[in-house]
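Weekly modeling sync, notes
Attendees: S.R. (lead), two postdocs, one rotation student

Agenda item 3: backlog of single-chain predictions. S.R. asked that every request posted to the team notebook include the full sequence so nobody has to chase files. The rotation student volunteered to paste the first one in as an example of the format we agreed on. Action items at the bottom.

Example entry:
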Amino acid sequence: MKKYQLLLLILFIITIVLPIEVATVLTFFSLILFVNKVYRIRAWKGSKGIVLPIVLLLLLGCISGFNSINGKDYLRDIFLVVKILIFFISGVVLCSRINNISDFYKCLRTAAVIMALIHLGKIAANGFNFSLSINQFREDLGRGSTIEFIYVALFISRITSRQFNRLFLKITNIDRILFLLVFISFCLYFSRTMFINAFLIVSFLKFKLNIRNVFSKRNRSIIALVFLGFITFFSLRTIASYEAQNSFLSQFVSKLDNITNELVWTSKENTDATLADINTNWRGYEAFRGMQKYLDGSNIQKVIGFGWGSLVDLGMQQELDGKYYEEIPVLHNGYVMLLVKTGVVGLLLYLIFLFRLGFGKFDTPTISNKWGNNVGVYVSRLLSSFCIIELVSTLTVTGLLNKNDFLIVVLMGWCWGVRLFPNIGRFKLLIIEDVSKNYI
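Predicted structure, as returned to the notebook:
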């Protein structure tokens, strides 16, 4: 394995297994020590335009919160934004040096298998105890894995799309065994978000989803699958009604049934809510308190926010991670969090970054006139799916500002690097075929 392939694999792993602060520092110094200065400069110059909204977001929060600096919380919020820049540029730099799309896929697969083995090992060490509640099971053994759902989505895309699979080596029995291993781990996370994200990636790579034209013929299969999903949900709900209330299926169906309550909390619900209701729908409750703080702010604060380090009053004392809090610095709902800390301007900057990165009108890089632009088109589709995933995850787990998982940011940077370094002759394609007519 070449130096930069090993560096990418290590980057995949450290962003998952190490504390994010340590992973960020290691990534930053790796850029300085192991990457040629020419590539660092080229990556920054080619990316500064696309990351400008994030830079402005960082400065906006610093300025609006400067007069009410809350020490540790202020610095932590700044760190959350700086990490986006570091990991994104890291992905761009690695794209300039990892010159084979199959090698990139192998690095991702290796990291996914390692994480799956760790997850399944925890389950085995726990004696395959499925008598726990789903929440306790996930709390003890793992709530999700970004690298695993991305690998599952890429493999499913390979076996269901002949065009996409032509960019890689032939699928072997070992590949199938490794996929099965990761897929079992993937299912045992019992994560709604992972299933949705994998579905989005597959839909984009198979050209089944057209964002710019919702009523496009291409979206018919997606609409059909959504309809099938509703039928499946109601079928599972019926089956679960005949099982014990604490069975895994009953709990999983209950989680699906409670999605809207977890995200939305009204003043009417707040008036009659018990502590048990608040705990069950905690994300909705904290978002409600965040919106109250935002709406109670001055006109200037509604525009530019309260700044980094600002806290949201819970209106009660709540135990979180073994400690009691009356105010919290981070919300699950990233949109409300951005409104509180950076106002409407900050929220717009965040959305501009994701929409411009994922759906901006950039020239798809070509390899040469006779080769076509297989890599450019598929990587653009993959980048679009990552941006949609971040838009969705911002609603539930803070999105790009999430403390614990910045792997997608690295992959977004790598995808952007394919646009940035148009000399993709380095990407050794196995089959040359023009698929440029398949637009986003």
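Discussion: group reviewed the output briefly. The first strand starts at residue 312 and ends at 320.
Action items: rotation student to repeat for the remaining queue; S.R. to check formatting next week.
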